[in-house]
Design brief:
The chain is mostly helical. The protein has a domain of 34 residues. 75% of the residues lie in helices and 0% in strands. α2 packs antiparallel against α3. The longest helix is centred in the middle third of the chain and has 27 residues. The chain is flat and about 45 Å long. The termini are far apart. 0% of the residues are buried.
Length: 99
């Protein structure tokens, strides 16, 4: 079961990694290669932490400990979400209105 979950997670993330690595230079958010490398390493660390917590949640048999791990994972998700939102603050969506 554990291997099945890992296979599913990897197969879900593989297209994401291919999309990120195949993005044309204009799609890198104006980052130079060093900034992009740092950004991707940060994303990787976040994803590894999330997967580690997922493994612990699935392996835990005590419902209270399992809930504590879920709460910890949720907090990690909130922090990452707020970080992403602050990076995009002020940029706007720049949608063009159709005539």
């Amino acid at each position: 079961m554990k291997h099945f979950v890992k296979i599913v997670l990897i197969s879900a993330l593989l297209p994401y990694s291919l999309i990120c690595s195949a993005a044309p230079p204009a799609m890198n958010g104006g980052m130079d290669p060093a900034q992009m490398e740092a950004h991707l390493k940060d994303r990787q660390a976040h994803e590894l932490a999330m997967h580690d917590l997922s493994d612990k949640i699935l392996a835990e048999t005590d419902p209270q400990k399992q809930q504590a791990l879920k709460d910890q994972q949720l907090e990690l998700m909130k922090v990452e979400h707020m970080k992403m939102m602050s990076q995009h603050a002020g940029k706007g969506m720049n949608h063009k209105k159709k005539p």
